[in-house]
Please model this.
Amino acid sequence: MRATLPLLEHSDFPPFARSRVSTLQVNLGYRCNQACLHCHVNASPDRTEMMSAQTVDTVLEYLRVSGVATLDVTGGAPELNPEFRRLVVAARALGVHVIDRCNLTILLEPGQEDLAAFLAAHRVEVTASLPCYTEELVDRQRGKGVYEKSIEGIRRLNALGYGDPSTSLVLNLVYNPQGPVLPPAQEKLQADYQRVLGETFGIRFNHLYTLANMPIQRFGSTLVSKGQFDGYMQLLKGSYRPENLESVMCRSLISVDWQGYVYDCDFNQMLGLPMACGGKPRVRLDELLGRDLAGNPIAVADHCYGCTAGQGSSCSGSLSGG
Model:
């Protein structure tokens, strides 16, 4: 796989700083039951990196002392980490809202038959990737049979009350473009998803998040191989909107890797761009206990244009209405 950081690090992206941390995003490991083309983590069934119980304890201690309201759990497939359920139970006991970045097919894996019920019992918000509402395009990007399994996963969640406006069980779907293009308007695409999936399968969800593909890891390497990297970067830079800087996720979120090292966002984590803090080359989460990060500079490179292009892109979808 071709490294993209050397193509991104000599950047003219404007410097900016973070505000108060309200979300702790934790990557529990890079192992996944899928190997999707657009995956910026380069996750797969062959990856072995997993967060240890000791580092999970540090995450819980940070939640106790920081007042952070939201724990955003990701991977890989975070549910494959043996510490996943302990982390969820303990975080919820602290009154922290938990988001699980779920790939849907994990709900059908052997040994995970009770996973959907576990998530519902602990009122976990599920944010799940479904890069299109058609079988052909999903299977092209994520592998044969993934669409069918994803639909079954949504049905299992729906049966427990997820996506029902009368409950507090939130199910969000995530759209990624199929190639080096910006995502369409989020509001219109959400209506299309709800209509097609509702009419075809009778399934429901709360929100659709549209995310731009980042020119890093597997997707970035594919762009380089196809000679499309420079063109995609020109698209991102040409679509830059400075007003999106006010709402990008890295202003209020920190990202922790499976070893406990801290980054300004998940994308910086995958590029190995650590948070600049205290003059250290890398900082661990246990070094930030009780520390206020407001005003801390955010490490930037050209991939940051992916979050600020067009309608903007973040862990919670577009940043603007158009």
The chain has a mean pLDDT of 90. The chain is about 30% helix and 10% strand.
